[in-house]
Design goal:
Elements lengths: L20 H7 E4 L4 E4 L15 E2 L5 E5 L2 E4 H10 L6 E4 L12 E4 L1 H5 L15 E4 L4 E8 L2 E8 L2 H16 L6
Antiparallel strand pairs: 1-2, 3-4, 4-5, 6-7, 8-9, 9-10
Length: 179
């Protein structure tokens, strides 16, 4: 996929208004069940009506150019459905950055959005916040909250360490958790 823009307006950039839901719906169609945007209007020689809009960024998000303004597709989906820009960040519930179905998007603060990260590539236990302490031959459970690391205990049993971590997640972050 390639980023394509719709025709420029006659106004200079300083006089152009931010993208509105009305303008978005004039140029793009959004399918909330698939999360895919398609162009309603042709733009130049390369973009035809009905063509899928947007292209992936190096970070894995889809970006779409509307009126010479590049926006992430998940933010455009939110505007298209709700009529307002997100207040802060949007979180992809299933962690798939190209899955822009409205049911997969939720408003989030940067702090809460960090809670929905995939496990780190150097994680050997398979569970975030549970590590093996070879010096003590114990599984250590910990959790971070408000820029503080909280030690949850050292356990001889892996499952008890995991349970301690999951209980702390539920206590601290509650309904935000999805898995």
């Amino acid at each position: 996929m390639t980023v394509h823009s719709v025709p420029r307006t006659d106004k200079p950039a300083a006089e152009r208004q931010p993208i509105t839901q009305e303008r978005l719906k004039q140029v793009l169609h959004y399918d909330p069940d698939t999360g895919i945007f398609t162009w309603k209007v042709p733009s130049g020689r390369r973009v035809k009506a009905g063509q899928v809009a947007g292209s992936p960024t190096y970070k894995g998000y889809i970006r779409i150019m509307v009126d010479n303004c590049s926006k992430r597709a998940h933010n455009l989906a939110w505007l298209y459905v709700h009529g307002v820009w997100p207040k802060d960040q949007l979180d992809h519930v299933n962690r798939i950055r190209t899955d822009n179905r409205i049911a997969n998007l939720r408003e989030s603060s940067p702090l809460l959005n960090q809670r929905n990260l995939s496990k780190a590539c150097n994680n050997t236990s398979g569970v975030t916040g549970v590590t093996w302490d070879s010096a003590r031959s114990r599984w250590v459970a910990q959790i971070g909250n408000n820029n503080k690391s909280i030690h949850l205990g050292a356990f001889s049993d892996f499952n008890k360490a995991v349970s301690a971590r999951k209980a702390a997640e539920l206590r601290l972050w509650g309904a935000y958790l999805d898995n």
